[in-house]
Amino acid sequence: MSLRPTIDFLLHDWLGAESLNQRERFADHSRETFDAVLDTCERIAREKYAPFNRLVDTQEPQFDGERVILPQATHDAQKAYAESGMLSAAQDYGIGGMQLPYTVEAAANAFFAMASVSIGSGMLTTGNANLLMKHGSEAQQRVFALNEFSGRFSGTMCLSEPQAGSSLSDVATRAVPDGEGFELDPLGPRYRLKGNKMWISAGEHELTENIIHLVLAKIPDAEGKLVPGVKGISLFIVPKWLVEFDNPHPGPLPQAGEGAKTRHSETDALPPLPLAGAGWGEGARVRLTERNDVALAGLNHKCGWRGTTNTLLNFGEGKYPVKGEAGAVGYLVGQPGRGLQCMFHMMNEARIGVGMAATMLGMAGYHASLDYAKNRPQGRPIAAGGKDAAAPQVRIIEHADVKRMLLAQKSYCEGALALELYCARLVDEQHTGDTQAADDARLLLEVLTPIAKSWPSEWCLEANSLAIQVHGGYGYTRDFPVEQYWRDNRLNMIHEGTHGIQGMDLLGRKVLMENGKGLQLLAGRINATIQRAIHTPELATHANALGQALAQVGAATKAAWATGEPGDALANAVPYLQAFGHTVLAWIWLDVALAAQVSADAPARTGRLGAMRYFFHYELPKIGAWLQVVSARDQTCASLPEAAF
Ligand SMILES: Cc1cc2nc3c(=O)[nH]c(=O)nc-3n(C[C@H](O)[C@H](O)[C@H](O)COP(=O)(O)OP(=O)(O)OC[C@H]3O[C@@H](n4cnc5c(N)ncnc54)[C@H](O)[C@@H]3O)c2cc1C
Q: Cα(557)–Cα(455) distance, rounded to whole angstroms?
């Protein structure tokens, strides 16, 4: 079974991705170039990722005291991904990118996540480099970001500390100016950092020449005290290896569109636009000089996602003194005290990426269990006269309960994929739409990002659990891949903001921001779908059900905040997140069903409409129970004394 028809349907029949080509930024693209990108990624994922997914799970990263050792397959996958050009797919031609719409980039990356979610850590590198393209100085972009886009360097995000996970205001890593003239360093104001960063993904390895850590730290005041809260947090580039560089092209990097001509003449012979690391723009000539004072304190041994190292890093403890002194050298990005705002640029992208990863792990389990169900004979149907023991066993896909488990998975995973691509389309709108459309997209993304991150993390994990169930006892063994998918997926409710934190972000901030305008915009989009569906006999009942669900969410939002007390409202933020998410997914499914209705492929159409019906019949009614405790500001959990547990 192939993922491609589902991707093609969602991209083209539903989202009309080709229409993006009418925008100046994407004018060189066409259905053919989009297909070429998808073909290439599908092939690399099939050849370099999927065959090694179990291997990277069983051969965990090892630290020999000097170096972290990873399987050769991880090196090969990393190289193939970098050579495809995907690290900079969305970047301008002028710096070697493809100016690919993010919608298509996200769809193409889905193949990798499904084939082996942890073998590559490209998402972190792209996010890191994108952040520098937005907030870094010109030198920081040329020296660090461009070398990340080319695959020579890789990137991390270093936020968490042992005592500061959800609560980033408690970050204790300190950054002090590095001697006289510290502010004149060509790479940005130079500081020395000391502190410990916990859980850092891809924090140590030999996959790339250098690792560019983006580190949150606090600059002490004149008395040496750290400013409490997030206001005191700044952002620093801390490379594993310090660098020196010549800049043969001083001046700003080419702007969007510039350089396109050069690229064309280079690539005209290779229609369509090739996926190749063609020309790395105007990067500086960079040499690694000495080891920076960043040391691996240990590798974390995880439940899943084992292909990527996860590390405790010590910054500035003196293991690798720089110029005879302890302290990791770091270069300030942007303004002091604005570090978290800069980091949010990376975190929002990362959250859509996490949602997509969760979705594709769910999808991998769905495909595996569907295949198993079609082949496993077990049991016989019950007819009016009982079972006919003499008849041959039927395949388990013929049992209604197995079909229920398969349809649940399909509705969670294909629905989640549609949601992620919808959000990716909003990112393109935000970047290339007219002023009003771009601002609407920004606000819609604010409201939808907690759902895009959390909903697949919870429900595509549930899909993985059902995939194990479909396999029976075999699913609980390592002979089949589904247990690994579940273990890999279990991470997604934890990192990039836990489920609880996302719920509080949604109910405590996102639905209230700008006087509730984001929520109103979303309601407007949902109502537009309802209006289209209500005139379609097959969809009218569902359109009405969605209308009622939307009204329930609106009423519960008001009721939750009726006392104005955050303690009352937020005690049930996760049930709110679940109900909000299910309502959003019902909307996405109804909208997808409108496109499916007119599509030609009969079995696929039947499948999509079946998954939509499953969602409306079995899932959407759950929101009543979730919203009831929200509306009542139920304190059953919040008020139970600790001693009573
Ligand atoms: C495999 C893996 C990879 C990671 N990669 C990175 C990375 O690359 N970079 C990075 O910086 N971090 C990374 N993290 C860290 C991750 O973001 C944190 O684990 C996460 O933010 C939670 O922090 P914590 O583990 O300290 O849990 P805690 O913050 O201690 O939370 C524990 C529980 O308490 C709940 N809780 C905490 N505070 C509140 C509150 N105020 N209200 C209600 N509930 C609350 C949480 O929801 C959670 O259920 C990674 C983690 C893992 C496991």
A: 18
Unique residue bearing structure tokens 């229609």: 271
Q: How much of the chain, in percent, has pLDDT values that exceed 90? A: 89
159 lines ligand 1 (CB under 6 A): yes
Q: Which two tokens stand for residue 214?
A: 């983006």
User: 47 alpha carbon to ligand 1 midpoint, in Å?
Assistant: 34
Q: Give the Å distance between the CA of 197 and the centre of ligand 1.
A: 13
d(CA 20, CA 24): 9
With cut-offs at 50, 70 and 90, classify the pLDDT of residue 283: low
> Which residue's CA is the nearest one to ligand 1's atom 14?
199
**pLDDT value, residue 612:** 98
Q: Whose CA is nearest to atom 23 of ligand 1?
A: 165
Assess contact for 401 and 381: CB atoms under 8 A. Answer: no
Is it the case that residue 601 has pLDDT exceeding 50?
yes
Where residue 252 falls among pLDDT bands split at 50, 70, 90?
low
Beta strands 241-246; 328-333: pairing state = unpaired
Q: How does DSSP assign 487-555, residue by residue?
A: HHHGGGGTSSS-HHHHHHHIIIIITTHHHHHHHHHHHHHHHHHHHHHTTSHHHHHHHHHHHHHHHHHHH
Q: What is the pLDDT at residue 592?
A: 98
Which residue reads 């273990």 in tokens? 487
Closest residue by Cα to atom 19, ligand 1, is: 495
**Residue 75: what residue type?**
H
Which H or E run includes 172? none
Distance (Å, whole) CA 264 – CA 630 = 56
Q: What is the mean pLDDT of the chain?
A: 93
Q: Is 571 in the pocket of ligand 1 (CB under 6 A)?
A: no
CB 429, CB 328: distance < 8 Å: no
Average pLDDT over residues 445-450: 96
Contact present, 75 and 90 (Cβ < 8 Å): no
- Angle, CA 74 vertex, CA 69 and CA 80 arms, to 5°: 140
What's the pLDDT score for residue 501?
97
The CA distance from 65 to 19, in Å, is 54
Q: Return the closest-CA partner of residue 194 out of 279, 306, 271, 294.
A: 294
Q: Residue 174 in 3-state DSSP?
A: strand
Is 200's C-beta closer than 6 angstroms to any atom of ligand 1? yes
Give SS3 for 42: helix
Helix (H) or strand (E) holding 584: helix 573-597
